[in-house]
Amino acid sequence: MAGSHFTLAALATTAVPGLVVTGTRTLGSAQAGDYDSAVLRDAEGEQLVIRRPRSQRAEGRQSADLVAIRALSTGIRTRLPFAVPEYRGQAPIGQTRAIVTTYVDGTHVDLGALVERPDLATALGGAIAAVHALPTSFVTDAGLPSLTPFEILRSAVSVMDRAVATGLVPAALTERWEGAARDQQLWQFTPTVVHGGLAADRVLVVGDHVSGVLGWGELRLGDPARDLAWVLSARNASAFETVMHAYTAGGGARDRQVPQRARLYHELETAQWLLHGVQVKSTEVVDDAVAMMHRLVDVVHSPLAQPLQAASPETMEITEVEQLLSSTERRHA
Questions:
Q1: Reduced 3-state DSSP string for 87-122
Q2: Is the Cβ–Cβ distance between 194 and 223 less than 8 Å?
Q3: Are the beta carbons of 234 and 202 closer than 8 angstroms?
Q4: Low-confidence residues in the chain, pLDDT < 70
Q5: Cα–Cα distance between 261 and 269 in angstroms, integer?
Q6: What pLDDT digit, counting tens, does each position of 277-333 carry?
Q7: Which of 11, 67, 131, 160 gives a 20 to 30 Å CA spacing to 20?
């Protein structure tokens, strides 16, 4: 078959001149995922990965990832306490191309294990802090996106607005999210280098250490809180606090409102899931998103719920918020 690891190994020798493959194995399931992929071993014992996208969407993600990892120079990589895949070559195949990079060892991080493994939570916080401490110049020099706080707020408001327009968002969440949007203090931050797409399947660990980070296609200057929101999927306050403590100690963004914005982004994932269901006309996805939002209402109404707004917010004038809301595209399902 075209996607077999033997075929990919042969293709890799075209992508990387002089490559001698002495061993190969599949990477993940051959039937699942967006890529045909394989791990290769060359004559010197180095392990490489070759990936061939199975769809146009996967090809776009791979291209964005390639731009990002090539922007991460050797000097930049020395500032990171983990490995990042390095580009080795590419070769055309059909209407797309296969990309060869170095292999990064490790298993996907298990967020549920952070409570019992505080050392891993500490390592995770330090790894994220190291990304945010990178010099911003290399991002702008590479022509990668550079977002302002207002652009980031406008994007969040757009998600809120379109989700509320479906009529399926509980009133308690609408009030909570729009209250956060009105909190001027919440959105006063300095953009940093961010990975932009951190998730459990993007972070590799060996023991209690972060060994590598994958999927750099959303590398940009943005909100540091975005890279911390996914940790809240662990659904354990102490694990998130441990990560945040290590993040701050490791030189992360000096912004007291990072936890609040991280919670907002995490909650808005339910709104994005709802919008996805509406877009693809999937009743199953829409029902699942609505159920998630109702469970979220129970969480935010509990005595231990954390607020989204700053402790002493300076709120926008109501006319400013109305102008911002009206500037986004309203779509009624």
A1: EEEEEEECCEEEEEEECCCCEECCHHHCCCCHHHHH
A2: yes
A3: no
A4: 1-3, 28-32, 310-333
A5: 13
A6: 999 999 999 999 999 999 999 988 887 778 787 655 454 444 444 555 554 443 333
A7: 67
